[in-house]
From TrEMBL:
It comes from Pseudoalteromonas xiamenensis. This is ABC transporter substrate-binding protein.
Length: 218
C-alpha cells in the first residue's frame, strides 16, 4: 500500500477511493469501486487478459507501453516525483551517479531504480529494501540510511501526519518525475471511455486537484 493513494484498506480511505467516489457522482452508467491488487497478481491478470476492471495511478513505462500500443491510457490524473531524501542534519544532494558511490540507499522491495540498481550490481553502493516508504523515512531518522528514494506525495502526507516537517532534506535534483494515468485492457473499452470522458470534465479535474492537496495536511 502507498499513502496517500491508499491510506487504510479496511477503512477504504485514500486518494484512490476518493477518485472512485468522484467518478460515481458525475456519471451513473457504471459504479466504480477501488480494490487493492498486489503487483504480481496485477501483472499476471494483465498478461493473461483476465483483468476485470481498470488500473488507477500507473505509468506506461511500468508496463512497457510507452507508445500506448498494448493498452488504453487516459490523460494524466496526477503528477508525482521520486525524490532523493536524506536526514536534514546530513543532507544529500544528487550530483550525478558518482555522488551515490559508497552510499546506503533505501528503496521499496521489488521496485527498479535506474541509475541506482546498476551501481548496486557493481558494489558501488548498498541498496536496502523495505515494504513501505514510511519505513524508509523512519530509517533516515535513525540514520540507518544515507539517502532514500521516496515519492514526493507520500513524503508530504507522512510528514504532515507524523509531525515530521523540517526533519528531511530533499535533493534539488530528483530521481524521477512521472505522471499517473488510468490504464485498461482493450477489452474494457466501454468502461475506459466513460473514465476518459470524465477526465475531460473541468469540474471533475478541479475536484481531483483539490483531493491531491487534501492529503498534504491530513
Amino acid at each position: 500500500m502507498k499513502a496517500p493513494y491508499i491510506v487504510d484498506l479496511s477503512e477504504q480511505t485514500g486518494l484512490y477511493f476518493d477518485v472512485a467516489d468522484v467518478f460515481n457522482r458525475y456519471q451513473h452508467q457504471v459504479t466504480f469501486q477501488t480494490h487493492f491488487l498486489p503487483r504480481k497478481r496485477l501483472d499476471k491478470s494483465v498478461e493473461d487478459a483476465s483483468l476485470d476492471g481498470l488500473v488507477m495511478g500507473v505509468n506506461p513505462i511500468w508496463f512497457g507501453d510507452l507508445k500506448h500500443e498494448k493498452y488504453l491510457w487516459t490523460s494524466p490524473i496526477f503528477e508525482d516525483t521520486d525524490d532523493f531524501v536524506s536526514f536534514h542534519k546530513i543532507p544529500f544532494e544528487y550530483e550525478g551517479e558518482t555522488s551515490l558511490h559508497q552510499k546506503t540507499i533505501g528503496g521499496i522491495l521489488g521496485y527498479k531504480y535506474f541509475g541506482v540498481d546498476e551501481l548496486a550490481a557493481k558494489d558501488l553502493l548498498t541498496r536496502v529494501n523495505t515494504n513501505e516508504e514510511i519505513h524508509l523515512l523512519d530509517m533516515l531518522l535513525k540514520q540507518r540510511l544515507d539517502v532514500a528514494i521516496v515519492s514526493r506525495s507520500t513524503r508530504q502526507y507522512l510528514e504532515a501526519k507524523n509531525h515530521w516537517l523540517g526533519l528531511f532534506h530533499v535533493s534539488e535534483i530528483p530521481h524521477d518525475r512521472y505522471t499517473r494515468h488510468i490504464m485498461a485492457l482493450r477489452s474494457r473499452n466501454d468502461e475506459f471511455e466513460i473514465v476518459a470522458k470524465l477526465l475531460e470534465n473541468e469540474q471533475v479535474r478541479r475536484e481531483l486537484n483539490l483531493l491531491s492537496y487534501k492529503y498534504q495536511s491530513p
